[in-house]
Amino acid sequence: MDINLPISMLYAGLLTLLYFALSVNIIRLRWRDRVGLGTGDSQDLKVAVRIHGNFAEYVPLSLLLLVVMELQGAAVDLLYGLGAALFVARICHALGLTMSVGPSWARTVGVLGTFSVLLLQAGYLIGAFIGGAL
After folding, report:
1. How do the pLDDT tens digits run along the chain, 134 residues long?
2. Among 5, 127, 6, 119, which residue's Cα sits nearest to residue 58?
3. Does the predicted model carry a pTM greater than 0.85?
4. What's the fold here for domain 6-133?
5. ∠95-97-99 over CA atoms, to 5°?
6. How far is residue 109's CA from residue 95's CA, in Å, rounded to a whole number?
7. At CA 32, angle to CA 26 and CA 33, rounded to 5?
8. DSSP run (H or E) holding 57
9. R_g of the chain, CA atoms, integer Å
């Protein structure tokens, strides 16, 4: 059985590179602030850990949904749009939290972008289920 998921593969790869960069930033801050475990007194490290954690909380589900959508034959433009929106949203979220732990335009774009992608994916898959079940 040959399954080819080029769009999911592209965004899984790009998001993995972003996850790697977020991880390296934590390592860099641990070295800089001499923190072996936890976050110590470093505000920068606390923020970096939350950026990384938030990514780990939302991105795997969205990637899984992207794979399922691609397997179900979703339109190529829709898949590219969702993948690109998620990638940009996650970059914005990281930049926004890095700029300020409070509200910022980039953090807002990141949160709304991530939630929009997840809601569109859920809607598509529920709609495909209902359409296939009828």
Report:
1. 678 999 999 999 999 999 999 999 999 999 999 988 888 899 999 999 999 999 999 999 999 999 999 999 999 999 999 999 999 999 999 999 998 878 899 999 999 999 999 999 999 999 999 998 75
2. 119
3. yes
4. Four Helix Bundle (Hemerythrin (Met), subunit A) (1.20.120)
5. 70
6. 10
7. 90
8. helix 43-71
9. 17
Nearest to residue 121, comparing CAs of 76, 61, 77, 55? 61
Total number of residues shown for the chain: 134
Domain ranges of the chain: 6-133
CA angle 59, 11, 113 (to 5 degrees): 50
Please state, in angstroms and rounded to a whole number, the distance separating the CA atoms of residues 110 and 97.
10
| Cα gap 134→130, rounded to integer Å | 6
Q: Assess contact for 86 and 13: CB atoms under 8 A.
A: no
